[in-house]
Amino acid sequence: MPRDAGAQADPVGAQTHYRALERLYGAAPINQLFDSVLEIPSAGIARIRFTLDERHFHAAGAVHGTGYFKMLDDAAFYAANSLVTDRFLLTTAFNLLFTRPLKAGPVVAEGRWISGQRRVFVADARLLDSDGEEAARGTGTFMRSRIALADLPGYADPR
Description:
alpha+beta, 6-stranded antiparallel β-sheet, 6 strands, hydrolase, Thioestr_dom
């Protein structure tokens, strides 16, 4: 695990950070366009449950590639940012592989941290359709920004 992720040594601090990231996800305006919920069960792991419908389709009646990218990027991003407690990460590159078309219904994006400990992190993600079949996978590179997590709407504890 990255040595810069101070909360990882403190289980209570880690759980606080994960819940704050989940609130941050929910507060992002783009996520008003998607029926989705983020959960971070542990360091370096993120899972997002999406429900897709015809609003996400291209002209041929399946989910448009922008939806695939959003779901995979978010899952990989939050897996990586779960290891960084002070700064917001930014996607600097993302490679995407489509393996099957997605139709309307539930989809799960599973993200996993692969490497990186200081400034640059690598994480991957996969999309699973309602039958548990992989529909796409991707790998992203994420870099620390100058944006403090504590300054972002939704990250702070609402209490």
